[in-house]
Amino acid sequence: METTAATHLPSDYLPILIQFAAALGFVIFAIVVTHLIGPKRHSKVKDAAWECGVESVGNARTPVSYKYFMTAILFVIFDVEVIFLYPWAVNFRGLGMEGFIQMIVFMTMLMLGFYYVIKKGILKWE
């Protein structure tokens, strides 16, 4: 029995390139048009920094606790890791026992990382 390797021609990627070019063209078009037709009136009040409709008070360089940043970084890390569960769940039957074992290893490593974070007390707020 003869097996044939899948060959991909450059023309197979043409739809992706067209979509990328269309998206890039739209972004450039939107930036240029809004810059050209947007209002150009400047004043002290309009150019002042506002946050949620409230005038800014104080210095923007005020120190912030590192715990805030650690929580945000850990959320992003564990959130991205959980994204890998969806394709695995969709292809669960096709992956068979090997895929199941790989996911068990993945989840074990994820839980070890979470245990490390808990053990170090990174999520404790005082």
Describe this structure in words.
It is an enzyme of class 7 (translocase). Its EC number is 7.1.1.-. This is NADH-quinone oxidoreductase subunit A. The protein is mainly alpha-helical and 126 residues long. The protein has a domain at 65-126: NADH:ubiquinone/plastoquinone oxidoreductase, chain 3 (Methane Monooxygenase Hydroxylase, Chain G, domain 1, Up-down Bundle). Helix content is 61%, strand content 3%. It is built from 4 helices and 2 strands, in the order αββααα. The protein has a two-stranded antiparallel ribbon. The protein is flat, with a radius of gyration of 25 Å. The mean pLDDT is 85.
How far apart the termini lie comes to: 68 Å
Number of strands: 2
Characterize the biggest β-sheet: 2 strands, antiparallel
| Order of strands in the sheet with most strands | 1-2
Number of helices: 4
CATH architecture assignment name of one domain: Up-down Bundle
H/E topology pattern: HEEHHH
Radius of gyration using CA atoms only: 25 Å
Mean pLDDT: 85
